[in-house]
Structure formats: C-alpha cells, structure tokens
Hints:
Chain A is an all-beta fold. Chain A has strands at about 5, 10-15, 20-25, 30-35, 45-50, 55-60, 60-65, 70-75, 85-90, 100, 105-110. Chain B has strands at about 5, 10-15, 20-25, 30-35, 45-50, 65-70, 75-80, 90-95, 105, 110-114.
Amino acid sequence: ELKVEQNPLFLSMQEGKNYTIYCNYSTTSDRLYWYRQDPGKSLESLFVLLSNGAVKQEGRLMASLDTKARLSTLHITAAVHDLSATYFCAVDLNDYKLSFGAGTTVTVRA
Amino acid sequence: GAGVSQSPSNKVTEKGKDVELRCDPISGHTALYWYRQSLGQGLEFLIYFQGNSAPDKSGLPSDRFSAERTGGSVSTLTIQRTQQEDSAVYLCASSLGAGAGELFFGEGSRLTVL
C-alpha cells in the first residue's frame, strides 16, 4: 500500500520569509502532483511533476521531485498572506489512482 | 461545462436515510473519480470510471456505497442507510483519461448525517 506523508501538517509562516513543505512516499513512482485547497473550496492543481529531477515554479511557489529519495518539496519564497491555504501532495498508484497526503495547513501572519 | 459541477453542495440527512450525490464532469473528460474528505483529513479514493471500462470500486468503504455513470458523463454516488461516520465532503474529479495527469475537482458535496 502506498503511503504518502507530508510534513509539517501545520505551518505558521511569517510574511516575507521562506519555508518548505515535504512530501515523502513509500513506493516507487515518478508522477507527483501538488494541489491547493482554500477553506470551503475545492482542490486547485498547482504542479504536475512527471520525472526525476523535475522542477516547476509559479510565482512564489517552487516544486521539485526526487524519485530516488521518494521525496517532493514545495518551497515558498517570501510568504504573503494570500498563500494561506491547505496544500496537498498526491502520488500516482497505477496511472490513475492518486494517493493523497494529509495536507499541510499554512497560515501566513504579518 | 467549464468545470466539474457537483450537487447538492450541502446535504443534511438523518441516520438511516439514503442520499444521492451528483457529479457532472468537464465535457470531454473520460475519467471520473469520487473521493471522500473527512474533517481535517486527506482525500480517500472511492471509485474510478474510465470510458466504457468496468469501474474500479476498490475504495468503496462498504456495500452501502454505490456509484454509476450514465452515458459516460454524469455520475451519481449513492449512500444507503447513512451512518454518522459517512459525514464528510464528497469530491468528484475528472481528467482527460487514464494517466492523463492532473485531476480537476468539483467543489464537493458536504454530507452531514445526524
């Protein structure tokens, strides 16, 4: 059974500082996804990482994938308030069935 | 449609009643998924439909849960004899096809069983 672990589960960020969310998974896979969920809303796709060494950036967010270490990171640069949300990573089990982490709830304070 | 549409957005029911949740996927998306999100938890896979293939029902938690997809488009998730532990947000997602990458999620149906 594929296990996907995120840490931390809760992250209080100070505006302007940098932070990293980690996503570890237990079984070989080279397809990893990051989603964002605002309270009461659905999940919005952020990044799709499809190979070892893949790095994608959008604004203040950058995601990377190391399939050998079975690790993905989501790096936040100079946090701002509108990044407050819950972030999920998800890993392919077998081409279609995504296994999700528990989510990291991010709060950005002034 | 422009996005995945789910209804109802909120449903409060009494224990023992049956409920139906509806999902209308993005037009042209052949793959459709149901996930369940309990309070403060991650997403739990329930069922997957791909075109005319037999669905993967391996995530359904009990035989009280069933789902169908008519005409390769709209899907209905049915929960019979609801229990309090069924309370959760039920999320539907669609994608272009198997292995097609990212899923596009609806806003979910929040089910509360009293």
